[in-house]
Amino acid sequence: MCVNEDSGGSPGRFPEFRLRLPGGEDIDRATGALLDAVGTNGSRKFLVRAGSPARDHVMPSFPKHFSGTFKRREELRAAGILVPSHRWPGWLELTADVECGSPSAAAEILVGAPRNGWEEWRTEAGTPLSDFMEGVRSGPNRAWLVRGSNVAGSDLVHRLWLPEGRVTLSAARLRQGVEQGASKERLRAFVEEDYGTTATYNQKLELVDELYTFLSRMKPGDTVCGISGGRLYVGEITGAVEQTVSEGGRSNLRRPVDWQSSGYAYDELPEELQQKLSVQADVVDLTSVQGLVDGLGRTDEELADDAESAGHDPSETVPALAARRELELPEPDQPLADELLVHDVEWLREVRDLLWDERQLVLYGPPGTGKTHLALRLAEFLGGGPERVKLVQFHPSYAYEDFFEGFRPQEDPDTREVAFRLKAGPLRELADLASREGNRHVPHFLIIDEINRANLAKVFGELYFLLEYRNKSVRLTYSGDDFALPPNLFVIGTMNTADRSIALVDAAMRRRFAFVELSPRTEPTKGLLRRWLAAQDRGAEPADLLDALNSRIDDPDFRIGPSYLMKKAVYREGGLDRTWRTKILPLLEEHHYGEGVDIAKTYGLEALRASIAPAPGPGEPHA
243: helix, coil or strand? Predict the structure, then answer.
């Protein structure tokens, strides 16, 4: 909020600050000073000098989300204090000094758009205002979540934070006089002494982290978020920490905040932001998703205009725009269908749509149906290259420590000593790659070959939950990190039904994966060998033999896939007979073990060739 200068504020111990207006290369910069006076919520006030220019329009979403500042701007115009400028046609100009509740509110009055005044008000030499605040860390602004919707049974967000312009943290037993900027070691000693046996060891560790963040890491200009009533509220920290006595000790550490006028429906927030907001802690660092927070309620056009207004280098990507770049899975095309010898490109598009909807998919079928090859090639196409695809193969002894993370013996290259160290597995490595800034709109794929050969509950551990609830995070077993599966990470499993029928797959796995059958009885597998033989200019006899073989196998899970006969070695002299004898018949011997079936007589090449030989015509001798 802004008022006229006669409210009693006076310039403090700081130099004059200037503000560059968007598109204002040919006009003077606005000028102002930080005041010693503070508002009712503890914010440092800021004085904007008469003669400062202002934009003659506001961002379209500004009246909704910054209604208080917009209203004050309109009041200044109505009062003849913010008027059309004679010096700079097309601009407005202040005719009197105006006192504002914070540097950001002052900048927003002039620009008509969200502004971080702590960074944008600068000295003649270019030093930002934030560098002049004692006891405040330097560096770029960050974003934080502070929980206040259920503090000792009270909703502080609506009761205190929004109406009074604050954010608070409970520290009921912490001694008075703890200064802003206190080190973590100092806070650890205070908590140990002040809380004693009233808190457990883990509670004290968490409390030290929360206090350190609130007291020493947060700074004016940082973004702060609170959740209440299914809505996310966003504001900007506008001043220093205040320690006071409060009812029940629920809000005795306070910081002033300039809250936006309206909240955002939680269910409509981007999934990646929901993941971070689900972390179970009272203070959470949201800086990794700050771009998503900054973009809430604003269109791409507004963000681009805002970046240009702030003097953003046009050759660089705007963080808020980059963060909201949409994840896409390209549509499979006919060249891909031709390469994979799939009968219909629409089948591939359906698989792509299942991946998009479910994000986890299993290709299942008998041996030799091309499950792994299809999974790899499809993932490379959808992800844009093999560097975004990782393959692992499950087996009975595979464990969580192999798959995600665990302590493994490693030799120190310097001391040659062996010690157990936390080592990331393939899923953690791929998740870290997928969640890097700049990668979040690019699909990444984990291929799990033979997914049914491992104990999935043992391998996935708490991550099994994340396969179903992608907008949540969990606390990891070993590292203790809060972890969520990146939205751009997709999982494709392959399942050999000769090892385990799909009917035996437990309900938990069925719920988390879509299942696509690759079977010799249905397309695209049914006609795959014929299409391959035609492409190779070879005769159709191997396809006829395979069809005849599978017609004699009653159990569809044990029918033989075409990939056994799609290798060059098969078509060298004696290759077909050798492959049949050493690859295909042993599979059927295992299937009929103990049944007394004559495998060669039933499934051998001689018997099958006889069955597909054309019947002799009239008068022709039988073979």
Answer: strand
Low-confidence ranges of the chain (pLDDT < 50): 1, 3-8, 623
487, 115, 223: which is closest to 329 by C-alpha? Answer: 487
Same domain, 110 and 147: no
For the beta carbon of residue 270, count every other beta carbon within 10 angstroms. Answer: 18
Give the residue numbers spanning the domain of 366: 334-517
Q: What are phi and psi of 76, to 5 degrees?
A: -65, -35
Question: Are both 280 and 345 inside the same structural domain?
Answer: no
According to DSSP, the β-strands at 474-475 and 482-483 are antiparallel
Coarse DSSP helix, strand, coil percentages of the chain, rounded to the nearest 5 percent: 40, 20, 40
Assign residue 544 a region (left: φ > 0; alpha: ψ between -120 and 50; beta: otherwise).
alpha
Q: Which two tokens stand for residue 539?
A: 């005769």
Contacts 24+ apart (CB under 8 A), 576-582: 576/542, 576/605, 577/605, 580/604, 580/605
* pLDDT tens-digit readout, 2-34: 544 444 455 656 789 999 998 888 899 999 999
Q: pTM here?
A: 0.85
Considering 497, 517, 537, which residue would you say is the last residue of a domain? Answer: 517
Distance between CA 608 and CA 547 in Å, rounded?
10
Report CA 277 to chain centroid distance, whole Å. Answer: 12
DSSP class per residue in 7-29: GS--B-SS--EEEPPTT-TTSPP
